[in-house]
Design brief:
globular; 6 strands; two-stranded antiparallel ribbon
Length: 210
């Protein structure tokens, strides 16, 4: 997709894209990351590593307008506001099809099961930012993302982010989002309770938002 949208950084090669994916997954320090990507050829020079990895990070981030349907909640009016980029509008009017993370993907392969989506949080390490961003998963600072998957196909149906792990646990994020869905869809807590199932331990501890 980087090549298709002309986002490959200058002099960028597949090996540099792999370096970037390794960096994003492991978030290693230089003394561990450079030898890991160099493998049997020896450690990569830190300046060379940064020269190729940082542009690829920005390039991957630039793919968002092509793969994600973006919407946000307005906390003041509890309404959903859709943000559509110029590039997406151009694709719509030119008839070009492109991949998107769509909420309706949770209906793929539906065989009338009670549960269609699985929702969980995942943390990504960042530079140290203090207690507000402390992640118990890493014992370090991180940003928390909530990801919903279609149970049958594994398709990503939505991404909500970022949250500070020291303030927002997974259940708090879930409640915050569904409060807005309840308001937008004009559904009662009882109606939503019939549609959302929490793990038994959580169900006993926390009710759905009122």
């Amino acid at each position: 997709m980087l090549s298709k949208h002309d986002l490959v950084p200058p002099e960028g090669q597949i090996i540099h894209a792999l370096w970037t994916l390794h960096f994003l997954k492991q978030y290693p320090k230089q003394d561990a990351g450079c030898p890991a990507v160099g493998r049997s050829r020896g450690a990569v020079d830190p300046k060379t590593f940064c020269k190729y990895v940082h542009p690829f990070i920005y390039a991957i981030a630039s793919l968002e307008i092509y793969v994600v349907s973006i919407f946000i909640f307005s906390s003041s009016s509890c309404s959903i506001v859709f943000l559509i980029s110029n590039q997406i509008l151009q694709n719509i009017f030119s008839g070009i099809l492109f991949l998107q993370i769509l909420l309706n993907n949770h209906f793929k392969g539906d065989v009338c099961n009670d549960c269609l989506m699985s929702i969980d949080g995942t943390d990504f390490q960042i530079q140290e930012k203090g207690k507000k961003f402390y992640s118990f998963k890493f014992k370090k600072s991180a940003l928390r993302y909530e990801v919903a998957l279609c149970i049958l196909t594994g398709d990503i149906c939505w991404i909500s982010s970022p949250y500070a792990p020291g303030i927002w646990n997974n259940l708090d994020v879930f409640h915050f989002l569904w409060q807005h869905f309840l308001s937008h869809l004009n559904m009662s807590r009882q109606m939503m309770g019939a549609l959302v199932k929490l793990p038994s331990k959580l169900s006993a501890q926390r009710a759905l938002p009122s």
